[in-house]
Amino acid sequence: MPNTTPEEQDLRAPSLPPAHTPTPSASSGKRSETRVLVATATREGTDGPTADAVRYYTAADHTTAVAVVDGAGHSPEVVDIVPVLAEAAARTGAAHFAVRGVLSAAALVSDRGPDGKGPRAVVAVAVCPPDDMTMASWCGDARVYGWDGQRLRLYSTDQTVAEHMRGYLGITGPLPAQAHDFLRGDLPIATLETVPGVRIPANEVIIVTSDGVHDQVPADRIEQLVREHVLHPQRLADELVNAAEPNSRGYRDDATAAILVRPEARQSPSPPHEESLTPLTHSYTATTVLITDDADRLLILKPRHRDHWQLPGGAVDHGEDPETCARRELLEKTGLDLPMQGILVVMWGPPGERLDGPAINLVFDAGTVPSGTTDSLPENELEDHMWVSTRRAAELLLPEASYRMHAALEARETGLVKLLSSGNDC
């Protein structure tokens, strides 16, 4: 059963006190006019115990903030920390704006311990200050929606590999399901530059969800539930988490929803308006090309400026699409002008010592050519090349390149794109 707030709030009876604040006293001034109604619900998934948490807090100036945190996995360490992260994000958000709320939670898990395997999580924070627009910030794939009385608008953008490929790489076709699970941003690596934010009109009802809701409830069903139950915030929160269905493997994630209703949203809606704070995120994209001959040998190259062998490929130029890059790199390095036959592997890596942003490597399939196919080498770049067996290639390539190679060969056999990460998936 969902873990819900104790009182059912009905927008047609706004005189009822909200569940999270006491009844106003004589010294409260205009508190009854500025209070925000909050309703929350959490439903444990099939893998339990619950690694979601939701907290809300109203500051002295009546600014109300809510934070929804979704932990990665269900280890005791994760289960213990997520309520702390949610409390820190909500309290800091109410006092110092939504972005600070996210960063305060990030500070608690930025050090992942001696083994580098400390807890990971994502968060969304919504802040409702009196007499100003609602502010929201997030990290990862927790979401923030707004309902203006006519339609549901998604204000947040998932920080996942799938959204990156669509928004920045221009890929419009179907993507493997795992692309929606691999994160480009989560709390341990969140910084001021990577935390996006939006401002939402004060007359909109705010809905914040963990991916156990929006990944397992179709978008049109979410909007239908909002339309049917928005006058009853607690009922809406309950319905959203209860609507999540198990996937084909019987798995159902933890599901959490928070509803915030400002006084302005209890009046007639006005046309929506959005002011976005453009995130300063960026990433580095490169391509790799898998090409074999009819003797099942792979082409590998020895660059002059490297001590190791590698598969053909290189960095995507500004404004260049990845497929064009892969074909260009193969032509420049081998003299072979071959069309790419599709993506075999998507590999994501977090920022590190060499790169200040995430790295994405796309492995393209250049197909199979006859043995003895001629190719020319640019002497200023390459020292040598070889057609070698998979086993020999694995001995000569760096471990990460070998990992990509084996995954690409498997993807070619199965016809399914492989999604890899040099970090961990959430």
Question: What does the model show?
Answer:
The chain has 426 residues and is α+β, with helices and mostly antiparallel strands. Helices cover 25% and strands 26% of the residues. It contains 10 helices and 18 strands. The protein has helices at residues 31-34, 76-96, 98-109, 161-167, 211-214, 219-229, 233-242, 322-334, 390-396, 399-414; strands at 37-43, 52-58, 64-71, 121-128, 134-139, 143-147, 152-154, 197-200, 205-209, 255-261, 275-277, 284-293, 298-303, 313-315, 343-349, 359-369, 382-388, 418-421. The protein has a 6-stranded antiparallel sheet, covered by helices on one side. It has a 5-stranded antiparallel sheet with strand order 1-10-9-6-7. The protein is elongated, with a radius of gyration of 25 Å. The two termini are 24 Å apart.
